[in-house]
Amino acid sequence: MSSSRSSRQSSGWGRPMRLLLRLILMGVGLGVITGSLLKLAGPAFQRESLTLPPWLMLPGTTRATEAEAAKPTTKPKPTRRDLSLGLFQTKNELTALSDRWNQLAASEPDLTVSAFMLVLDDGRYAQLAPDTALPAASSIKTPILLVTLEEIDDDKLSWNEPLTLTKEVVGGGAGWMASKPLGSRFPTHEVATEMIRVSDNSATNLLIDRLGGKDALNARFIALGMSATVVNNWLPDLEGTNTTSARDLARSIALVDTGKALSIRSRDLFREVMGTSVTNTLLPRGLLRGLGGQQGEPDDSLMIKGYRVLNKTGDIGIAYADAGLIELPDGSRAVAAFLVKGPFNDPRSTELIRKLAAAMAPVLKPKPAVARKTPDAASINP
């Protein structure tokens, strides 16, 4: 009798306890799920990229959000850091400089000249037959470097991809790669650097071949807006069939420096490679002469004055060229390019480039900087 009563009592307490236990477990589970959802949705809600249904919004939240949305938006005034890196866009012609270039060219009537200069920061420019197509010589290697780095940005070429020396691409003249055995392999970064550093012609031909050949490369030049730049023969092209113009050469450099071509990383590679060029006797020497310096190495002497020139020359005897990016002491930048065609190995051709660059120097002198008051310690640490 007592045993039966005890069993009924145990059975009566067991059911509520089980129900209570289930409720507790369900509550814990819902809490975990809700916490996880809030953790995931919280940042999105703070960014206002997640809209909650009205029944979840706190009183007044919707009205406040709508009121904020109705407020007129005003853009903050741009600072100097927000400004563009510059544009390849002509605005105000420096007619005095253009006229001076015409006078210098007219003094050597049997020489054909193409010249162009543009200050990227403000659009001031000078020109002399800037679109005349002339033998490019090795100056065409700058646009080739640009296309090479574009291929790297597009994941169609690797900076360390090995390129194999073949009989077809071996070129005479400048450079050392032609002396290596056929079948030798060089990483792309070495090929591109030697193409600019010592103007290696075999290195250039390796890249022309890797970029799809002459026709494919010429199509890329056209797409970049350089219609006068054409590769017709392997380097060294002593006959001068490969052509370019002063405006095209300046454009190939400006597109990189203004951010219109190449990623930031490839832009840095472009500048690093261009900075390795060892020939500085044309544009840099002429610029230094125009700034009042005659002695010493142009690169070092210009650096002391606050200038730097990243340039690439060309020389095939019947034609000479030089084009580069010019960094000025105030931080602004300009591009300049010069090509001269004349009698074989005529020293007047190279001297004319130096004269043209020297005439350009006065307009590239920055205005004196305004002295600014240095804040005192109290204003810095109130």
Which key phrases capture this entry?
382 residues; 2 domains; 10 strands; extended; 13% strand; alpha+beta; 13 helices; Beta-lactamase; 6-stranded mixed beta sheet; two-stranded antiparallel ribbon
Radius of gyration: 34 Å
What value does the average pLDDT take? 85
Strand fraction: 5-15%
Quaternary organization: single chain
* Cα-to-Cα separation, first versus last residue: 91 Å
Percent range of helical residues: 40-55%
Helix count from the secondary structure assignment: 13
- Could you describe the largest sheet, including whether it forms a barrel? 6 strands, mixed
- Identify low-pLDDT runs: 1-8, 43-49, 55-84
Which structural category fits the helices and strands? alpha+beta
Count of extended strands: 10
CATH architecture of the largest domain: 3-Layer(aba) Sandwich
- CATH fourth-tier homologous superfamily of the largest domain: DD-peptidase/beta-lactamase superfamily
- Overall, the morphology is extended
* CATH class descriptor name of the largest domain: Alpha Beta
Strand order of the largest sheet: 1-3-2-10-9-8
List the helices and strands in order: HHEHEEEHEEHHHEHHHHEEEHH
